[in-house]
Structure formats: structure tokens, C-alpha cells
Amino acid sequence: MDNLILLVLGLFISALGIINIKGNISTIHSYNRRKVKEEDVPKYGKAVGTGALIIGVSLVLGYIALFWSEEAMAFIILPAVVVGLGFMLYGQFKYNGGIF
After folding, report:
1. Rounded Cα gap, residues 97 and 100, in angstroms
2. Exposed (0-12), middle (13-18) or buried (19+): which is 37, by Cβ within 10 Å?
3. What is d(CA 94, CA 1) in angstroms, rounded to the nearest whole number?
4. 98: alpha, beta or left? (left if phi > 0; alpha if psi -120 to 50)
5. What is the pLDDT of residues 60-77, one digit of tens each?
6. CA 76 to CA 71: how far, in whole Å?
7. Distance of alpha carbon 45 from alpha carbon 55, whole angstroms
8. In the chain, is it the N or the C terminus that has fewer CB atoms within a 10 Å radius of its CB?
9. For residue 26, how many other CB atoms are within 10 A of its CB?
10. With the CA atoms of 91, 13, 27 and 99 taken in that order, what torsion angle do they form, in degrees rounded to the nearest 10?
11. CA-based diameter of the chain, in Å?
């Protein structure tokens, strides 16, 4: 039960990812979405939301993997965080013109 925060954080990040994928990007900081054109909002939301969903799901799976092995958790979460951040950075650079 010490790692319950991992589950809660994973569910929260997954929910934010789903919200962004559906086109609502209001949960993303205003300076990160400032230069996104109106016609690119759905594409931007899908890119950033997919990254968040990948990270959130990996945290939930990491929590489940803790029941068997702590080492397995690292093999689930670390690659997923790299891939998820890749999706987010892709969306930031392509549709916002940079990180800020």
C-alpha cells in the first residue's frame, strides 16, 4: 500500500491524456499551447494526450507489477516515460514551435 500514490498518479495522468486526446487542451499550461493554431488544436491534443496516456498507463502497470517484482516496474515505466515524452515533445515542437 506504500505505492498507492503510483496508482493514483497513473490514473490521474491517464485521465488527463484522454481529455487531451478528445480535443480539450485546456489542461495544458497556457504558455505551452499559446502558439498552437486553431486548426491544429485536435492534432496537438492527440499528440500530447497520447504521450500522457502512455505515461499514465505505464504507472498503473508498474503498480500492478510491484506485486510480483520491483525490478519489473523499472522495465515497464522507464521506456514508457521516454516514449510518452517523445510524443509530447513532438507535439510541442510541431504545433507550438518549441517548448515554450
Report:
1. 8
2. exposed
3. 40
4. left
5. 999 998 888 888 888 999
6. 9
7. 15
8. N
9. 9
10. -30
11. 46
Residues in the chain: 100
Is residue 68 within 8 A of residue 52, CB to CB? The reply is no
92, 48 contact by CB (below 8 A): yes
C-alpha cell at 48: 500530447
In this structure, what C-alpha cell is assigned to residue 67?
506485486
Angstrom distance (rounded) from CA 57 to CA 61: 6
Which ranges in the chain belong to alpha helices (H)?
Answer: 4-21, 41-65, 70-91
Tracing cell 515505466 back to the chain, one arrives at 77
pLDDT at 3: 83
- What are the cell numbers at 65? 507489477
Mean pLDDT of all residues in 45-66:
94
